Amino acid sequence: MTRLLAPLSTSLLLTVAASAQCFETDFGTQIITFADDILSTTQTMNISFPMGGTFATYDQVAVNSNGAAFLWNSTGGAIVGATATGYAGAAATMVTNLRGAAGGSPRIAPYWRDLDEVDVFINTSYAGKTVITWANCIDWNAGGAPFTMQAQLDASGNVTFFYDTAITQLSNSAITGVSAGGGIADPGVTNLSAGAVGVSTTKIVYETFATLNFDLANNMVMFLANGGGGFDVVPVVGYSNCVHASNDVMGVGCHGQLESFYQLFDDAVLAKAALEGNSLQLAPTLNGYVGTWLPGTAGALYVAPTIAATSLATTDDGVTAVTLPSALPIPGGSSTNLTVAHNGIVQVGTTIADWDTLFDPEGVDVAAAVDLAFLSWTDFRDNNTVPVASGVIKTELVGNSFNITWENVDHWATPQVTAPSTVQFQLDLTTGVVTMVWLLVDNNTTSTFGSEWMVGWTNAGAGTDPGSALISAPGTTGTPEVFPMTLTASPIPVINPSTTVTYTVSNLPEFIPTSGVYISTTFLSVAPFPSGFPLTGILANVAGCNAYIFSLDLDLGAQVTFAPTASWNFTYDNVNFLAGQSFGVQTVSLFDPSFPLFNGENGGFQFSNGILSTVQLQ
After folding, report:
1. In what order do the strands lie in the sheet with 486-490?
2. How does pLDDT run across 175-217, given as a tens digit for each residue?
3. pLDDT for residue 10
């Protein structure tokens, strides 16, 4: 029985160990560039590497362009034994070089030979390991295709080498191996492509290669520190780029107000009734704007352009760049760049594609916009000449207010007639307050392109369409700064060993306004759906809510909290979960539908973004 169990346990050891490593594509910091016979400066590693030899552990490394790295301890002064060259034509000499001399440094050598045009990188940002990569290497004076190799030093004392498919030995006496240095005794050559448990009882394992004999291309070779004081060798043919454990965000939560806030009027008659004679004031906050509806104030607030005002060149559905005389304060900064879309949009920024040629107000376009913009959007026609020329768009600085005025600008009609509206955007360059004033709103609905109006604002950055909200109502104090329900997760689900991940949701809606009570639960699904599917007409009645999971496989537990946040702990163990598995996680919150949310949502459910938790061994 003992003889049977030994090979089984050996097989299991090698399989588990090999599956835990993979090639890292993030090389980190370049420390040698296009070099021949160069030794890097001493680099600090993020680990204490147990190798023995001159010191018990090592926290520094110097790397040469010829495929070797030399370890040292920061308490020992300058590194001893490191060399920029160290190659030779005789295999015996290369073995001597790998063994080092008394008091010298340990050596890590994935392919030590005379190399040229080499780029060397080090990445110490990975938890528990240091990664060294030699890229674009060629054999000196022999040519061949450039190749890349990588060494990973693990805090446990393990070393892993990776080789791409292009590596071909064109010159003699390359050596591959690890050594504690210090003149360690030579145990003889090991066939690294065969692998064996208990292959060494001392801290040196190596193989030398004659010309065209290198057989580790597209291989991974692991040197696993064993209980006998040496290394077990694990070769693996073919390997994959690393996919680490992660908690990736899927979409956004319902009805957040950071992206946009607008009201859509289906035609000009409705727009005239709601807007004419009124104003909307938008005051900047840290992340957006809070609006105040100012009924009956347009006549008092409107500032008629003077003869000194600048008239923009007329264009149908076009945009014009405008530079402000001083920076306009906006959430997160300031800007002097405006893009005026002639259909009633003032954009802070220069992204022409956001609004150029758009004449039909739609929420999807607002959601897709990249730059901050203020909207009084309809199908204007400032280049109309039938039966007489339309008014034009004018800009003018009045005190600290930069005014942009659609002065008697015509709306599209079929057939075209004079159909003027007068709308003014007042941008306070001192405070950042933006005021939209509707002095005159045309009510012609004959255009074959429609006569919709959309008023409001959209913040910088593309988001989801929250749907039309109520802005133009007496007594309405405007656009509340509402944040979407947001789910986060930490730490990442590593199962080497098991990890408890905490899922935390914020910005929960109150079950009943002013009650201070919040009700929510979180589901885990084996069927994540990263692109999301809309819940409008299913569990929501306003656009903007999406499900990011296809099934409700595990309820992590309903909670009643007295703050707009809640947390759930879930353990990904190494018994029930396998590396590479992904799970979708999403939170749902309840609210009393008798008290609709700010945008009219009365379905009774709010949803967070999703989290895609991917389990890995590292």
Report:
1. 486-490, 499-506, 565-572
2. 999 999 999 999 999 999 987 767 888 999 999 998 888 999 9
3. 38
Please indicate, yes or no, whether residues 108 and 216 belong to a single structural domain of this protein. Answer: yes
Question: Coil, strand, or helix at residue 569?
Answer: strand
Kindly state whether residues 513 and 603 are assigned to the same domain: yes
Task: Name residue 273's amino acid.
Answer: A
For the stretch 423-467, pLDDT in tens is: 999 999 999 999 999 999 999 999 999 999 999 988 877 666 767
Asked if the structure places residue 465 within a domain, the reply is no
Confidence class for position 21, pLDDT limits 50, 70, 90: low
- 0.85 exceeded by the pTM? no
**218 and 70 belong to one structural domain:** yes
Block residue for tokens 């906050």: 285
SS3 321: strand
CATH classification of the domain holding 527:
2.20.130
- How remote is the C-alpha of 560 from its chain's centroid? 32
Distance CA 603, CA 592 (A): 9
Query: Residue 475 falls within a domain, yes or no?
Result: no
Give the CA distances from residue 247 to residues 66, 483, 489, 494, 527, in Å, rounded to whole numbers and listed in that order: 39, 21, 6, 11, 15
Per-residue pLDDT of 79-121, as tens digits, reads: 999 999 999 989 999 999 999 999 999 999 999 999 998 999 9
Say whether both 179 and 30 belong to one domain: yes
Read off the DSSP letter of residue 310.
E
DSSP string, 211-260: TT----TTEEEEEEE-TTSSEEEEEEES--B----EEEEES--TT-SSSE
Domain ranges, residue 19: 2-237
Distances (CA, A) of 108 to 33, 38, 41, 61, 291: 20, 16, 16, 10, 64
pLDDT at 64: 97
Both tokens of 115, joined, read 């190399």
Residues 363, 354: contact at Cβ < 8 Å? no
Amino acid symbol at 143: G
Peptide bond into 106 cis (omega under 30): no
Distance CA 299, CA 439 (A): 6
Residue 303: strand, helix, or coil: coil
Nearest CA-CA partner of 79 in 60, 52, 101: 60
DSSP state of 603: S
3-class DSSP state of 126: coil
- Secondary element (H or E) of residue 177: strand 174-179
Query: Using CA atoms, how far apart are residues 107 and 63, in angstroms rounded to an integer?
Result: 10
Alpha helices in 63-150 (DSSP H): 91-99
Are 83 and 7 contained in the same domain? Answer: yes
